[in-house]
Specification:
about 200 residues; Rossmann fold; seven-stranded mixed beta sheet; 8 helices; 7 strands; globular
């Protein structure tokens, strides 16, 4: 991993004990609504990038059902361990990995979900290209937050380690997604949520 990725790993691992109580989204209604907006189908195979302590996992698992599968990855091993220790019911694999260099094969996921993680990708284009590689043709990349872009950027700007970890404006995001090969790009930046979705062409 790059040096800044190691710093990021230390930043998140150092907050694992307080994450769920002080940082993570606790509004069940907001989490449920966001999961529903992703249009995850029963039986789908999902790559969850930046799983953290697993805040969003049960909402996705509820939608894909027992025939679905989630591969959960994170660069912070202690955060990932905390998610695993929660004992979520479903077909889940936990992998300590970086989105910029995935130890996974080509075109194996119906959907890649980045919930509250995209700003922390240290090489965003490379991360998007890796996501494109592992998504099946016709599959989707979903970048989502249960806060607005402005709020996330403001909060990150107050902490030295992540002060540059921001959500780009719509034009930059569209450009990066297009350069990575995605089409059908749409960006929804609401007052209390953010969702960018893009498709890998058939």
């Amino acid at each position: 991993m790059l040096k800044n990725s190691l710093s990021l790993r230390a930043f998140f691992n150092g907050r694992v004990d307080i994450w769920d109580e002080t940082v993570a989204e606790k509004d069940v209604t907001k989490l449920t609504r966001m999961a529903t907006r992703l249009h995850l189908e029963p039986g789908a195979t999902i790559l969850d990038v930046g799983t953290g302590t697993g805040v969003f996992l049960p909402y996705m698992l509820n939608l894909i059902g027992g025939d679905g599968r989630v591969v959960a990855i994170d660069i912070a091993d202690q955060m990932l361990l905390r998610a695993k220790d929660k004992g979520f019911q479903g077909n889940i694999s936990y992998i300590y990995a970086d989105i910029m260099s995935l130890p996974l094969g080509d075109e194996i996921f119906d959907t890649v979900v980045c919930y509250s993680s995209f700003p922390h990708f240290q090489d965003r284009l490379q991360a998007l290209q890796e996501a494109y590689r592992v998504i099946r043709r016709g599959g989707w990349l979903l970048i989502c937050h249960t806060s607005s872009r402005a709020h996330i950027n403001e909060v990150h700007g107050q902490m030295d380690v992540v002060k540059h970890d921001t959500i780009p404006d719509a034009d930059e995001m569209r450009s990066m997604l297009s350069t990575a090969g995605f089409s059908d790009i749409a960006i929804e930046n609401g007052s209390d949520s953010y969702l960018a979705h893009a498709r890998k062409p058939q």
